[in-house]
Design goal:
The complex is a heterodimer of chains A (388) and B (164).
Chain A lengths: L6 H5 L4 H10 L5 E2 L11 H12 L12 H14 L10 E4 L1 H13 L5 E6 L5 H7 L3 E6 L10 H7 L4 E6 L12 H13 L3 E5 L25 E6 L12 E4 L2 H14 L5 H13 L1 H24 L12 E2 L10 H12 L1 E2 L1 E2 L11 E4 L4 H19 L1
Parallel strand pairs in A: 1-10, 3-4, 3-5, 5-6, 6-7
Antiparallel strand pairs in A: 2-8, 7-8, 9-12, 11-12
Chain B lengths: L2 H12 L5 H8 L3 H13 L20 E9 L8 H8 L4 E6 L6 E7 L2 H12 L5 E8 L5 E2 L2 E2 L15
Antiparallel strand pairs in B: 1-3, 1-4, 2-3, 5-6
Helix pairs in contact in B: 2-3
Classes of the chains: A alpha/beta (388), B alpha+beta (164).
Chain lengths: 388, 164
């Protein structure tokens, strides 16, 4: 029946992670550093408020753009935390996770003849979404030498005049890299000079560990109208399964995205939107505690990998470390497969996130310290055998 | 108080087994600094004691606890302090809190049996000068103590083993 699939879908590569997932699922007693979501359960105040909304019978559709109350609260939040004010009516759209927002943006803005610039290594959905929109996906390689920050030089290497949209996903999954304000200002100049739009996927914006807070790309001079600020509640509030994200941007573009959203989704789940509202109103402390816990684990992991003699730049965002494993003489894929086989530890090959991930593995530290300690002991043993 | 000190103290409060070296790795502070800080906190009685939280119910040991409401006549010049200091000396008394509302002192008493607790209240506590009345509430079940849930299942996150 495959012949019925459209050529685009037929040619779409399944995620490298999928294959590894199937392999890991056959094993027992593994420690997985391969999980791209928080290990915390959603803070109780949020869960309790969702339960209450159900008890009250709040089970109907919301407006397409999402609960107005949530958009109002979000508008205040973005103004206070990201330094950009968006109008709740027209400039904010509640989506089913940031994933939907990425898809909407690609479909509303790009099509045949357009190119999307996608820095890699990066999250796995940008390329497929661009291809499904009929656009050309152009990878922009970043490197360990720059701690996986995007530079204008990187962009110039692959820029073509048909480029229309640039994806910026910092703090980055899988590398943990962040972009500082001065790094972003240079990118902004490039964006301006080439009349690009920016899809700023900033789902990890709250999870940064540098002295200076995260800079939202939209907050840079002149970038507000060129930028779609995409984020979600998943990482900041440990709410992955609730599927609530959002996109903020220029009303004209949001209007286009809203059209797609209303026909394919109608609206995000009401219960989840009620939970998200509670998250913004009263889970700030719970969020801060989770961030503090990630920060401790992050230092613990970096220290552990460095003690093994592996190159490990300090990741200042998200909850991943991205150590270099070249010294072992193994490719990323060989490393993760053999590690799983010999030590029952799952990590994801850097190449699952783009070719520049070769020589690296992604280790999530969204696990308890006890698990991380055990995982590091096992990886250390594995690495020592390879270096001996 | 500096933010990193506050975090350090919280961390020790959660798990006092962490060595200064462990704490140094996790916080980015130096082990020497942490050691000195702990010494200072101990000297200042900021850190009062290092000890684990034990759920005695699980050991099968018979213990009985009671919350006691105590109404006290405050004394001129010393308020409630004098009587509170006197009460807290009894080893049976685990907590002493001065509170607002319908009564004055809230005590947590521990003993090996209900009778032992009742006798303590009747013979030691109630007859004290300035104690006007007491009300004893025996603890039937301890659900949560010091921020830690004693009853209920651990919330183990059910996650996919690998996800992007």
């Amino acid at each position: 029946m495959k012949r019925y699939l459209t050529p685009t879908v037929a040619a779409l590569q399944p995620s490298g992670i999928r294959k590894f997932f199937d392999l890991v699922s056959t094993k027992k007693n593994i420690i997985s550093l391969g999980v791209g979501e928080p290990d915390f359960v959603t803070p109780w105040t949020i869960r309790e408020s969702a339960i209450f909304s159900l008890e009250q019978g709040q089970t109907m559709y919301t407006s397409n753009a999402g609960l107005l109350e949530l958009r109002q609260e979000l508008s205040n939040y973005l103004s206070a935390h990201m330094g950009v004010r968006y109008r709740p009516e027209g400039e904010l759209l509640i989506t089913v996770g940031a994933s939907e927002a990425v898809d909407l943006a690609m479909r509303a803005l790009t099509g045949p003849g357009d190119a999307v610039l996608i820095p890699e290594p990066s999250y796995v959905s940008y390329v497929p979404c661009a291809l499904l929109a009929g656009a050309e996906a152009r990878y922009v390689s970043t490197s360990a030498a720059n701690e996986f920050r995007l530079t204008v030089e990187d962009l110039e290497k692959v820029y073509t005049p048909n480029a229309k949209l640039l994806v910026l996903s910092y703090p980055n999954n899988p590398t943990g890299a962040i972009m500082r304000r001065e790094d972003l200002l240079r990118i902004a100049e490039f964006v301006e000079a080439h009349d690009l739009l920016v899809l700023a996927d900033e789902v990890y914006a709250d999870l940064t560990y540098a002295a200076e807070p995260h800079t939202a790309f939209a907050s840079l001079p002149g970038m507000r109208s060129r930028t779609l600020h995409v984020s979600s509640f998943s990482k900041s509030y440990a709410m992955t399964g609730w599927r609530v994200g959002y996109v903020a941007g220029h009303a004209d573009i949001l209007q286009g995205m809203l059209k797609i959203h209303q026909y394919i989704i109608m609206c995000a789940s009401k219960m989840s939107q009620m939970a998200a509202l509670e998250a913004l109103r009263s889970a700030e402390n719970a969020k801060r505690e989770m961030i503090a816990a990630y920060d401790r684990r992050r230092r613990f992991m970096v220290d552990g990998f460095r003690q093994m003699g592996l190159d490990c730049f300090e990741p200042l965002g998200a909850f991943y470390v991205f150590p270099g494993i070249q010294r072992t003489g193994l490719s990323s894929e060989e490393f993760v497969n053999t590690l799983l086989e010999e030590e029952n530890v799952a990590a994801v090959a850097g190449t699952a996130f783009g070719p520049s991930g070769e020589g690296h593995i992604r280790c999530s530290y969204a696990c308890s310290l006890e698990q991380l300690e055990e995982a590091l002991t096992r990886i250390g043993r594995f690495v020592r055998r390879r270096l001996a | 108080m500096l933010e990193h000190d506050r975090q350090l103290l919280r961390l020790i409060e959660q798990d006092c087994r962490l060595s200064p070296q462990d704490l140094a790795i996790q916080t980015g502070l130096s082990a020497d600094y942490i050691q000195e800080k702990i010494r200072q906190w101990e000297a200042d009685k900021v850190i009062v004691q290092f000890r684990p939280l034990i759920n005695w119910e699980k050991t099968g040991e018979e213990t009985v606890s009671a919350l006691i409401e105590v109404r006290v006549l405050p004394q001129r010049g010393v308020g409630f302090d004098k009587i509170a200091k006197r009460i807290q000396k009894f080893p049976e008394v685990k907590n002493v809190l001065l509170i607002s509302g319908g009564y004055d002192l809230a005590l947590l008493i521990e003993g090996r049996s209900m009778q032992e607790v009742a006798l303590f209240v009747a013979e030691k506590l109630a007859p004290l000068e300035h104690v006007q009345s007491t009300a004893t509430h025996f603890v039937l079940r301890r659900y949560k103590q010091d921020g830690v849930e004693f009853i209920g299942e651990d919330e183990i996150p059910q996650r996919l083993v690998v996800s992007p």
